[in-house]
Amino acid sequence: MDTESSDATTTEPAESTGQAPAEVRHLIQQWKRLDELLAGLRRDDWSASTALPGWSVRDVVAHIAGTEHMLAGEPVPDIELSPAVREYVRNPIGELNEKFVQEARSLAVEDAFADFREVVAERTGQLAEMTDEDLEAETESPVGRVPFRRFMGVRVFDCWVHEDDIRHALGMQHHLGSGVGRFAVEEIVRALPRIVGKNAGAPDGSRIRFRVKGDSDTDLSLATDVLVAGRAGLVDVDDSARITVELVFDTPTFVRAATGRVTAEPGNGVELSGDEDLGRKILESMAFTI
């Protein structure tokens, strides 16, 4: 993952020098992928239900656009949410997301798509004007206070996952192993120590191996170990080490389990070997997104 930056900063816009960080380049590429996908949908496709409770395809698009409206400096819609949404809206970020979704439901499909395109164009222009200093400035984000550049990496992940939500809802294949996908999946890899140590409570000395096996060259494939030594952390795969649990996923199951779309079960997209009780706890604890 390309997150290195020079010690020196410049006041020239990063994009104008052709040196925009990977986070920005991948985000713009992901927006283009979404635009191409949405342009090919039929009208009925926009009303298809997704794996996200209460949200259709058009709601997912409204959520993506709404987040960019907020980042463009626009206010959160002043909407009173109904008690019914409390079944799946459980935190302040969820409430914010739902308000943008609710506001967009009055739009015709054509207008919802136009709104997505307009705000993406606006945000692309804003990102092109940002200097290296702007991109390194600390800001609040879903992963805490981080450089703005890092926040845009989270946006890549979010938009990439939502492309998968749309494709999955419509029975379309998603080439999860694209360049953007390989960048975005690092968000899941970063979360594995917390999943293993904090969420699943793996005991000290445990070594958990995660493998993701793609069915084709367009799928993701990866392997990493999480070692609990006082606290859990990522370590290189060591085939000479004793493995407490090994989990071998197919690509879609790994992504959808980590993002809370499914609960992975042994024999259904994932194979478990080693300590079965701990392995099942890890699978039950995979979801880390808000």
Report on the structure:
The chain has helices at residues 22-39, 57-71, 92-104, 109-129, 132-136, 148-169, 179-184, 186-199, 251-258, 276-284; strands at residues 138-141, 144-147, 207-213, 222-229, 231-235, 245-250, 265-266, 269-274. It is an alpha/beta fold. Helix 1 (22-39) packs parallel to helix 6 (148-169), helix 2 (57-71) packs parallel to helix 4 (109-129) and helix 2 (57-71) packs antiparallel against helix 6 (148-169). The chain is globular, with a radius of gyration of 20 Å. Mean pLDDT is 90; it is low at 1-17.
Layout of helices and strands, plus pairs?
Elements: H1 22-39, H2 57-71, H3 92-104, H4 109-129, H5 132-136, E1 138-141, E2 144-147, H6 148-169, H7 179-184, H8 186-199, E3 207-213, E4 222-229, E5 231-235, E6 245-250, H9 251-258, E7 265-266, E8 269-274, H10 276-284
Parallel strand pairs: 3-6, 7-8
Antiparallel strand pairs: 1-2, 3-4, 4-5, 6-8
Helix pairs in contact: 1-4, 1-6, 2-3, 2-4, 2-6
